[in-house]
Amino acid sequence: MAKRLYQVWKGNNIFICGGRIIFGPDAKSLLITISLVVVPVVIFCVFVARHLLHKFPAYNAGYAILVVTIAFTIFVLLLLFITSARDPGIVPRASHPPEEEFTYDTSVSPDQIGGRHTPALHFPRTKEVIVHGMPVKIKYCETCMVYRPPRCSHCSICNNCVERFDHHCPWVGQCIGQRNYRFFFYFVSSSTLLCIYVFAMCALYIKFLMDGDSTVWKAMKESPASVVLMIYCFISLWFVGGLTGFHLYLISTNQTTYENFRRRGDNAPNVYDRGCLNNFLEVFCTEIRPSRNHFRAFVQEESERAASRRRSAEIEEEDEDELPRGPRAKVEDDLEIGGDLLKISQRRTVTSYEEGEVDFGSELGVDPEARVPVIRGEVERFSWGMRRSGSWDISPEVLPPSSSLAETGTLSQ
Question: Which segments show compositional bias classed as Polar residues (predicted)?
Answer without folding.
Answer: 401-413
